[in-house]
Amino acid sequence: MLTDDAVTLRAHTADDVEPAYRMCQDPVMQEWTTIPVPYLREHAVGYLTEVIPAGWRENTSWAWAISYAGKYVGTIDLRDGVGGVGEVGFAVSPEVRGQGVMTRALRLVVRYAFDTLGWSRVIWRAYVGNYASRRVAWKVGFRGLVTVPGGGVSRGVRKDEWVATVGRDDVLEPQGNWWAVPVLENNGIRLRAMRETDAQRVMEACNDERTQRWLSGMPSPYTLDDAAWFIASRPHAAAGGEAVTWAVADATSDELLGNVSVFELSDRIDKTKGEIGYWMHPEARGRKVMTTAVELVIGHAFRPIEDGGLGRRRLVVKCADVNTASAHVAEINGFTLVGTERRADPRRDGSYDNLLTYDLLADER
Ligand SMILES: CC(C)(COP(=O)(O)OP(=O)(O)OC[C@H]1O[C@@H](n2cnc3c(N)ncnc32)[C@H](O)[C@@H]1OP(=O)(O)O)[C@@H](O)C(=O)NCCC(=O)NCCS
């Protein structure tokens, strides 16, 4: 039995079969775990009364019932352990999600793996997109997250997988920032998280001739799939502490007008810098929309982390010297031109433009 002041981990009993069976009917549970579908009562009976006790007996897996407010709410297990390294798996019933139950349970079990089983490392694995599970692992100090294409199997189908680990000497606390994407508004402009439904507008904006000219790394032609991939990649970048990306939207219609990001946020040495990048849908250009959007981003980026901001000290904007519209957005927002890299900005025809660097320091505001 393992316990903190809110969660108790104990052996499963026959009374847990019914709530475990019910938990496994949850579509979220079925999507993110390897449980059989359809999930029958006999599956719960077999797992709780045969598989789990056998694991403890044979020293091959260690599963606990999670008890919260006196009730069975889920299961967490350790498995393998060969060479002092093993995996953790967990699930909690929908009624109690988001209350910190799994974070507590995971911390107890990781400590057990190190202190009692003598493991040196615990591995966490989840299918790509399971942000609730990723957040629990992040909160307990799992680190070094990588994506393994096709690394997981779900009922015979290969899926991309995230893997992260925590070692015996690591602190069980978050490593790096998991950025939020707050809604910011001014002058009829709203910055908000990107949505799947923005894909058509993203595709239009990124196929535009000027966007294609100045952002030469973009796919060409830029398809709806490219837009969907870009939108889906944004939560990953925010969770990994690398970038925060907003849709620049009309505050009345909420339609996407453009896109603005702060990136380069996870530099290992300088943790206080950031680069701002942007593009506008051609229909919305020339109305000072990006000027307003960048102003909002600057305010958020310079706000201290403890006040919900990004805690930046220095921001940069980079653009080709011949891209006057982009340079104008930087200048009007108070950025200073600090340098020109000669022939550093590649164009698609094989030529290069000079690249301007503008910067803005927090204490200049
Ligand atoms: C993953 C799971 C176990 C989390 O349990 P839980 O008790 O809700 O976890 P916690 O409350 O300790 O933490 C969940 C965190 O994820 C956050 N979260 C939930 N959904 C999220 C999402 N889509 N994007 C980002 N964060 C999300 C919650 O806000 C919470 O973070 P916070 O406390 O900082 O606000 C639960 O969602 C579950 O059982 N899912 C189905 C089974 C499963 O996926 N198991 C893991 C397989 S790898």
TrEMBL record:
UniProt cross-references to Pfam families, sorted A to Z: Acetyltransf_3
Keyword Transferase annotated: yes
The keyword Transport appears for this protein: no
Keywords recorded for this protein, A-Z: Transferase
PROSITE patterns, per the entry: GNAT
Domain N-acetyltransferase, chain residue ranges per copy: 7-164, 189-359
Molecular function terms from GO: acyltransferase activity, transferring groups other than amino-acyl groups
Superkingdom in the source lineage: Bacteria
Transmembrane parts of this sequence: none
Record's protein name: RimJ/RimL family protein N-acetyltransferase
Organism expressing this protein natively: Kribbella jejuensis
Phylogenetic classification of the source organism: Bacteria, Bacillati, Actinomycetota, Actinomycetes, Propionibacteriales
